[in-house]
Amino acid sequence: MVTFVRQDASRLAAWDPALYWYARGVGRMQQRPDTDPTSWVFQGCIHGVPPAVTETHEAFNQCPHGGWFFLPWHRGYVYYFERIVRAAIKEIAAEEGITPDPSATWALPYWNYALDAPDPNPIEDFTSRALPEAFRTPKMPASPEAVELTVDNPLYVPDAQVPPAAFWNAPHRALGKNSAFEVLPYTDVNPFRAMSQTFFSATRSRQSVQPSFGSEISYTSMDHFRRGFGELENVPHNQVHGGVGGWMGSVRGAARDPIFWLHHSNIDRLWSSWLSRDNRTPDDTSWLDHQFMFFDENGDVQRPTPRDFLGIEPVDYAYDALTDGTGTQPAVVPPAPLTQAGERVLATANPRQVLSVHGPTEVSLEPVGDAGRAMEAATAGDVPEAGLILTVHGVRTDVPPGTPFHVFLNNPGGELDPAGPYFVGWISFFGAADVDGDLHDHGGHDVSFDVTDQVRRLREQGLLPDGPVTVSIVPSIPVPAAESARAAAEAADPQPSFERVSLTTA
Q1: Bridge partners of residue 354, in order along the sequence
Q2: Were both Cys, which of 23, 114, 121, 397 would link to 496 (CB 3.0–4.6 Å)?
Q3: Rounded to whole angstroms, how far apart are CA atoms 61 and 57?
Q4: CB 29 within 8 A of CB 84
Q5: What is the largest CA-CA distance in the chain?
Q6: Could you say which DSSP state residue 481 is in?
Q7: What tens digit of pLDDT does each residue of 319-350 get?
Q8: Residue 356: phi, psi to the nearest 5?
Q9: For the packed helices 40-47 and 70-96, what is the interaxial angle rounded to 10 degrees?
Q10: CB distance 44 to 247 below 8 Å
């Protein structure tokens, strides 16, 4: 039975009761000892543990990414968090004599960043892709009826450019994210490709045989971070984490930014929307009966399974809309992401290069052998015997750069439109930051794209001239340059980088 309805924060007034009481509940959680399972710090550590937290617990660092437990685990995580916030609201209302009890109907809102479709005109006003106002203002009303913003706002996280040594000193977002302008362009949050999938999960080998909605089959593995992203986890999930940046762009710190929970409420809503289209979840018992570990509003351990969270209305909550912000078909569908590069190298570049967060970084690939003829053969006919794989190797960064990056292939004249024919896909640095400690001693992650169809299409249209293959890697939302030499010296740019780029045959 549905008791609670989650609403779209993009459509709510700045201090609508749903957002006001969320802030009050978060504030109460932040006052609790870090060892309390219902505290803000403890709940964040279930997802990932920042270095400043010295306590350990078997429930910490659970979050699975890149496997088929990604969606059900986060659904359970958000569900029990919502119950903790609701209990905190009930506690506050009782103390302050507020009636009727706001916790009786309160539900966690969601951030529907794809609500507003692309607009060809310059964006001058607020869009759904900006952080909701309640997350951008340092102060909030002192009571539900108040208008003036007079008390500290627990939903506010400063945006700043922070050097690696100070990254974990305090939660923050990337520079400029607390403005009323969009965090990410529509291209980076459009869930059309994910919502078009019919498989929840698929097995991936060297190249993906089947794109999927819910990340690759991982059997009983709950890997903290693997690279088998499904379409939903790739876009919009990873891009939003990277677009907000700061602690939100870090696996260890993400859940300590209050916008995290509205982001994952929307990811959960998109799963319900996908199920409403007669799609199915796995029937494998290794998925259905895998136990998670969470805590309820009383601090008691709960061990639900994916089986407990199935359906469009999985427990006692529902969404106010399942069709809004679920994607529009792009003019050109970008290539599918892969897990590994191909075998025969046709062209490569080995620059070990830092990517500019302010503008394009261009790389020329040197051909190996008769690369032109091999490319032509790989893309000949309706069903080519081989495919072309473009890979950016060794992707990593010191701190989250506050933007995903777009990849373009052979774009003449600097055409950098992600809706155009030269767009290949995205590089997200969520899970690829040195401050997360997950890269250890290896050089970083590899990001691969199947560009077979794209190269064939460009050739047919005469848009792929003979000559060196060039790749452009461009920040989705360029980071503003420091206005003075002093500012630049005080806070150096993030240093996202890659090891090399290669074009190979599958």
Answers
A1: 497
A2: 397
A3: 9
A4: yes
A5: 79
A6: P
A7: 999 999 999 998 777 777 776 777 788 888 88
A8: -75, 135
A9: 180
A10: no
- What is the number of helices (H) and of strands (E) in the chain? 11, 17
Give CA–CA dist 345/50, Å, rounded: 40
Kindly tell me if the per-residue pLDDT of 467 is higher than 80: no
Rounded Cα distance between 91 and 81, Å, is: 15
> Which pLDDT score, from 0 to 100, does residue 126 have?
62
CA-to-CA separations, 327 to 191, 216, 235, 236, 406, in angstroms, rounded = 5, 22, 11, 10, 19
Could you tell me the CA-to-CA distances from 250 to 54, 184, 431, 437 in Å, in that order? 18, 17, 6, 10
* C-alpha–C-alpha distance, residues 226 and 217, integer Å: 11
- One-letter amino acid identity for 226? R
Question: Per the structure block, which two tokens stand in for 204?
Answer: 């991936």
How many residues can be counted in the chain? 506
CA-to-CA distance for 401 and 435, rounded, in angstroms? 12
Return the H-helix or E-strand segment holding 78: helix 70-96
Amino acid making up residue 435: V
CA distance 229 to 224: 13
pTM exceeding 0.85: yes
- CA 343 → CA 211, 275, 368, 450, distances in Å? 21, 37, 13, 13
Decide if 50 contacts 253 (C-beta within 8 A).
yes
Q: Report whether 129 contacts 185 (CB < 8 A).
A: yes
Rg (CA), the chain: 23
pLDDT in tens, 29-60: 999 999 999 999 999 999 999 998 999 999 99
